[in-house]
Amino acid sequence: MKINLLQGDITKIPVDVIVNAANGSLLGGGGVDGAIHYAAGPQLLNECKQLRNTTLPNGLNTGLVAVTKAYNLPAKFVFHTVGPINGEDNLSLLENCYVNCLNKAEELKLNSISFPAISTGVYRVPLDYSVNTVNKVINDFKPESLQTINLVLFSKRAYSFYLNNINKK
User: Fold this and answer.
1) CA nearest neighbour of 85 among 104, 66, 61
2) What DSSP string runs through 46-115?
3) What is the distance of C-alpha 74 from the center of its chain?
4) What is the pLDDT of residues 41-96, one digit of tens each?
5) Are the C-beta atoms of residues 164 and 153 closer than 8 Å to each other?
6) Which residues are catalytic?
7) pTM of the shown model
8) CB-based contacts of 77: which residues, under 8 Å, 6+ apart?
9) What is the CATH T-level fold of the domain 2-165, as seen in this structure?
C-alpha cells in the first residue's frame, strides 16, 4: 500500500473515493465539505437530501460513514464522515472516521482513497492529534484491495505539519 501526502484541492485528484469531512446534516457546509459539494454539482446535494429523507432522517452521527456517487468529481464515490468537534465530541471518534472509511473502501473493493485532515478546520481538532490518529489507523490497517491512500492537505501549514510527522510505512 502506498501512502501519498499531497497539498492541494482534494476535488481535483483522480481516485476511487474522496472522503468528505461532512457536517451531520449532509447538506453541505464550509471548508472541504463546501468544496466537494460545489465540485460534484447539484446532484450530490440531491442524493444527500434523499438519504436524509430515507435512511438518515436525523443526519449522520460522528464517526460513521455515508456513501454517495461522486457526480462531477474525478472519483466513483464520496464517503461522507462527520468528525468530532474539539471540546464537544469525544476526540477518539476521529479514529472511527478513518477506520470506517477504510473498511467501506475494502468492502467495495476500491483501490484508492483520498482523505482530508478531518476536523482540523472549523471543528478545531489539533493537527498533532490528527496526525497521531492517522498514523495509528494506517499502521493498524491491513489492506486487501486498497493500494493507495492519499492524505490531501489544503493549507501549506497543515501540509508541512503532516510532512514532518506522518509515518509512511
Assistant:
1) 61
2) HHHHHHHHTT-TT-PPBT-EEEEE-TTSSSSEEEEEEPPPTTTS-TTHHHHHHHHHHHHHHHTT-SEEEE
3) 15
4) 999 999 999 999 999 999 999 999 999 999 999 999 999 999 998 866 677 899 99
5) no
6) 33
7) 0.95
8) 16, 17, 18, 67, 68, 69, 70, 108, 110
9) Leucine Aminopeptidase, subunit E; domain 1 (3.40.220)
